[in-house]
């Protein structure tokens, strides 16, 4: 067994410690994928390494070629690197093809991408692949099949043959006993049949398509717990944000998200002060789900830098005593800097602009009200009126609304949401206050801020936003702009009927790229999910589960090179290999949904023979010349 069971993550970390003890410099090299969950996992891991005084180097990567190139540069050229950690990359690719595994090197794989490459989990002790439970609970039959193929007896019949001395072969009798000869041949025939079934099972495992497991940030928090490290607000918040990112990007389903939340809830209780815990319990409404109320008036205070009333009051105080009285609430608000569970409305970045903007630029609302049409916009206005808010209140900064209106909003939405196809408008999440008179942040706000910073400012800006308020505030501003661009682009495409519905998938190609066009894999995925979910709400049942392909110019200065991305709904099953048992056919975090575009893209690329770049961590992403796109789509229709 070379995979690391979910109850023994500390074993992999202890190998990192052991490697550091034999190195006189930077002993750990971390390859981190450029996604939100990866950044959150990286923050937890680096905090652990710093606490143990382990030198490490971080290398952001976006494809496997970058890992190979950096591995040659940083690992092969010296002996100080004793451990390589791969975060959200590597699980689906044979590590032997990426990194030169010298004897003193350990590779730790912390990756939510599935399926696993079986050589990573069953082959080499130098590769420590952290399992979230899928391998230990569901893959016993697959492990036996793999070990039979790799370590079982050869299929050759050479034992039954000998040289006759004249350059030919004659059949050797087994003990000159015909019955024994028949028995041996029957055993070998059975072995060949067993191996054939084993190969078919392994092939079916890979052929099921890609999906995601537990967030890597949650895995890192579990590692910290096993090491006996007390959880902190920052580490728990990183795990919460990583899980929220997975849900936003539809890498996991709501059941998988709820499974993670149930564990994180215990971690939140561990870091909460008794005062905060008691206060939260006292504020719980008496309703069916017994969840904390959506809006705590004490939490939703304006930022002290933008609260004109506070600034004027502070400027007008005449004595130190008056200033002290004005600021005395700081001590009272201290306990509220902790993380709290909260039922959140699916209105994008609600606390950081107006309710009107939060609903108008919410993919959830737009997909259900069809706000690209005049009728849909009228329904949105009617919904705001039924929520009991005037137009002026809806357009005012939400943070300045009266507390009773915020509470009323949550209750009214529960009452009338079903009339607008929004019965699931609330979702369980967490909120965090960053101190006295600092804006409260939900986990989904944080996830969107990280995604926006990754797109606009780069990896390290998003990494810094996890701990630096100024970077975070900039990320929230970027997130609002990103949501405006995504929803606006989607509504234009829907209004112009730019999405083509083919027999087995939907297709959208963005012909031009401007500064207002969402580009890059993450932004394009968000746009594709918005379009896919919107059309799903308004199409015939036969088309509801169609997968979606979106293509856009790679960059403004590369209009002739397209980035192509394939997205499937979580309940989409294009085909199910018959060899897979029930355990392998369903995962605890993503259900039965699988993305088959990675395999299909491989087949089409081989058939097309064009200049196509693959090798991204998400196998359903590729680059292609615009001139080859029409032929690519035509061949894609034949393969699906």
Low-pLDDT residue spans: 167-173, 275-295, 328-336
By DSSP (H or I, 4+ residues per run), the number of helices equals 26
What integer is the average pLDDT? 86
Percent of residues in beta strands = 5-15%
* Helix percentage: 40-55%
Shape from CA axes? globular
Strands side by side in the biggest sheet: 1-7-5-4-2-3
CA-based gyration radius: 28 Å
- Which structural class do you get from the secondary structure elements? alpha/beta
Query: Could you tell me how far the N terminus lies from the C terminus, measured between alpha carbons in angstroms?
Result: 37 Å
Q: How many strand segments?
A: 19
Oligomer: single chain
Largest sheet entry: 6 strands, parallel
Written description of the protein model:
The chain contains 26 helices and 19 strands. Helix 2 runs parallel beside helix 8, helix 20 packs antiparallel against helix 21 and helix 22 packs across helix 23. The chain has a 6-stranded parallel beta sheet, with helices on both faces. The chain has a 6-stranded mixed beta sheet with strand order 14-15-16-17-19-18. A hairpin with a 7-residue loop joins strand 18 and strand 19. About 6% of the residues have low confidence. With 640 residues, it is α/β, with parallel strands linked by helices. The protein is globular, with a radius of gyration of 28 Å. 42% of the residues are buried.
Features:
640 residues; alpha/beta; 6-stranded parallel sheet; 26 helices; single chain; 48% helix; 6-stranded mixed sheet
């Amino acid at each position: 067994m070379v995979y690391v069971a979910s109850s023994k993550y500390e074993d992999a970390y202890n190998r990192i410690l052991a490697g550091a003890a034999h190195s006189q410099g930077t002993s750990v090299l971390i390859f981190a994928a450029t996604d939100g969950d990866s950044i959150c996992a990286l923050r937890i891991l680096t905090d652990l390494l710093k606490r143990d005084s382990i030198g490490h180097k971080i290398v952001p990567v976006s494809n496997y070629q970058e890992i190979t190139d950096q591995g040659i540069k940083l690992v092969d050229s010296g002996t100080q690197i004793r451990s390589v950690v791969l975060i959200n990359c590597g699980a689906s690719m044979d590590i032997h093809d990426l990194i030169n595994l010298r004897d003193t090197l350990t590779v730790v794989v912390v990756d939510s991408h599935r399926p696993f490459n079986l050589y990573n989990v069953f082959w080499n002790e130098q590769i420590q692949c952290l399992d979230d439970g899928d391998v230990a609970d569901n893959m016993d039959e697959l492990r036996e099949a793999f070990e039979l193929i790799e370590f079982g007896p050869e299929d050759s019949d050479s034992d039954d043959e000998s040289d006759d001395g004249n350059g030919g072969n004659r059949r050797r009798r087994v003990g000159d006993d015909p019955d024994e000869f028949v028995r041996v041949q029957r055993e070998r025939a059975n072995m060949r049949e067993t191996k054939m079934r084993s190969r078919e099972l392994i092939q079916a495992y890979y052929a099921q398509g890609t999906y995601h497991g537990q967030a890597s940030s949650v895995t890192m928090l579990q590692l910290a717990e096993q090491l006996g490290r007390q959880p902190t607000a920052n580490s728990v918040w990183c795990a919460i944000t990583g899980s929220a990112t997975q849900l936003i990007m539809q890498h996991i389903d709501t059941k998988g998200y709820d499974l993670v939340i149930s564990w994180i809830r215990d971690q939140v209780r561990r870091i909460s002060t008794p005062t905060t815990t008691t206060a939260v319990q006292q504020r719980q409404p008496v309703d069916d789900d017994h969840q904390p109320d959506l809006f705590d008036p004490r939490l939703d205070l304006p930022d002290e830098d933008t609260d004109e009333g506070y600034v004027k009051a502070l400027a007008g105080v005449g004595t130190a005593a008056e200033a002290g009285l004005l600021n005395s609430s700081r001590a009272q608000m201290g306990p509220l800097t902790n993380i709290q569970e909260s039922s959140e409305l699916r209105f994008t970045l609600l606390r950081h602009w107006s309710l009107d903007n939060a609903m108008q630029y919410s993919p959830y609302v737009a997909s259900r009200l069809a706000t690209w049409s005049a009728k849909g916009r009228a329904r949105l206005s009617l919904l705001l009126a039924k929520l009991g808010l005037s137009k002026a209140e809806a357009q005012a900064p939400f943070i300045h609304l009266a507390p009773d209106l915020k509470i009323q909003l949550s209750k009214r939405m529960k009452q009338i949401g079903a009339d607008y196809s929004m019965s699931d408008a609330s979702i369980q999440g967490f909120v965090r206050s960053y101190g006295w008179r600092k804006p409260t942040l939900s986990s989904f706000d944080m996830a969107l801020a990280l995604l926006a910073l990754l797109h606009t400012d780069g990896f390290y800006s998003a990494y810094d936003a996890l701990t630096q308020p100024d970077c975070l505030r900039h990320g929230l501003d970027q997130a609002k702009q990103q949501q405006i661009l995504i929803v606006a682009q989607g509504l234009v495409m829907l209004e112009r009927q730019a999405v083509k519905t083919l027999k087995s998938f939907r297709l959208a190609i963005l012909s031009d790229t401007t500064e207002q066009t969402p580009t890059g894999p993450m932004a394009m995925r968000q746009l594709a999910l918005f379009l896919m979910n919107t059309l799903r709400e308004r199409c015939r049942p036969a088309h509801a589960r169609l997968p979606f392909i979106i293509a856009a110019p790679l960059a403004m200065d590369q209009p002739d090179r397209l980035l192509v991305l394939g997205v499937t709904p979580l309940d989409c099953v294009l085909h199910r290999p018959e060899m897979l048992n029930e355990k392998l056919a369903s995962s605890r975090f993503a259900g039965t949904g699988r993305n088959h575009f990675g395999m299909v893209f491989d087949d089409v690329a081989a058939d097309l023979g064009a200049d196509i770049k693959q090798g991204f961590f998400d196998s359903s992403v590729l680059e292609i010349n615009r001139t080859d796109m029409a032929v690519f789509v035509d061949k894609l229709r034949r393969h699906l």
